[in-house]
Description:
Order of helices and strands of chain A: EEEEEEEEEEE
Helix content of chain A: under 10%
Number of helices of chain B: 0
Oligomer: heterodimer
Order of helices and strands of chain B: EEEEEEEEEEEE
Largest interface: A-B, 26 and 27 residues
Number of helices of chain A: 0
Radius of gyration of chain B: 14 Å
Amino acid sequence: KAGVTQTPRYLIKTRGQQVTLSCSPISGHRSVSWYQQTPGQGLQFLFEYFSETQRNKGNFPGRFSGRQFSNSRSEMNVSTLELGDSALYLCASSPSPRASGSTDTQYFGPGTRLTVL
Amino acid sequence: GDSVTQMEGPVTLSEEAFLTINCTYTATRYPSLFWYVQYPGEGLQLLLKATKADDKGSNKGFEATYRKETTSFHLEKGSVQVSDSAVYFCALSESGGSQGNLIFGKGTKLSVKP
């Protein structure tokens, strides 16, 4: 079974631009979560989507948004990029929504490395 | 709020040495506990997990026991290999309410020398 895939793997943008990252979950998994990893803040939860609905959200500004499609693929968008948005963005999938109390394991993709200049 | 504290790195060991990475947690409910590993340039891989007190998770020679009385989930391996060099993350996930996302520790970088 193929794992979680994320595209692109690397991105370079400049301040003020916007960016869209894509995540395809493991086949059959309907929950997709996004995390930001930085050297200073570590791994922080952004949001979770299930059945095309946002189920849970972390403490990030409104510039960070996401969506999920009917085939469970998800995208996250960051508008008006800032230097501090440079990070590794990780996507994780699981069969059921974690926000519902599921203890299903989350499986992570390789991440998208975003650099903001 | 919930949090995870793990020992600061980096940790440098010789091959075949014993490994312990300490992890303690604070949670308002009864969390599931995880260890994830991140190899250079890659995403996170689940190493092991435990979902209730006294459960022992194990995988690839690594073990960790869910200790409710000490709120700990220390990672151990009896004999490390060079290929174990990576960053290890302890994490928790509450199993109810509106939570469920993973809360991670800061990570511990392990380097194993031949």
